[in-house]
TrEMBL record:
Gene3D superfamilies: 2,3-Dihydroxybiphenyl 1,2-Dioxygenase, domain 1. This is Glyoxalase-like domain-containing protein. It comes from Streptomyces leeuwenhoekii. CDD domains: VOC. InterPro entries: Glyas_Bleomycin-R_OHBP_Dase, Glyoxalase_6. Residues 8-143 form the Glyoxalase-like domain.
Amino acid sequence: MTSVKPVQVTFDCADPERVARFWCEVLGYVVPPPPEGFATWDDYNRSLPPEDQGSWFACVDPSGVGPRLYFQRVPEGKVAKNRVHLDVRVGTGLVGEERLATLQAECARLVALGAVCVQVLLADEENESCIVMQDIEGNEFCLD
């Protein structure tokens, strides 16, 4: 029997700290303390060679349950649809109009943070409603 392995979700992006702080707001995650010996993340970044400054950032679930999110700077922009995306589970257990209203309220909150609402998928015979969105750098995710 194999053991369960911890997972980190990695995002390629242009501005790691900005995208990480967006996801902290979306998920209720926090920025972990800076590496030992540094009072702040800015102090840590200033200690790096110029080409490495701001090249990555991370955020974590304060309860320790969810995966760590890691954001790394890459030179190229996003050019195609994500093959993997996050489902932010804000409507779990809700159905019908109550679910849709909850999803729409969260959508409005995230749009105010810079997200983009791409498509509202209304409930049908097989699926409940969900909302397809993009984060501040165009990475797709769903409110589910």
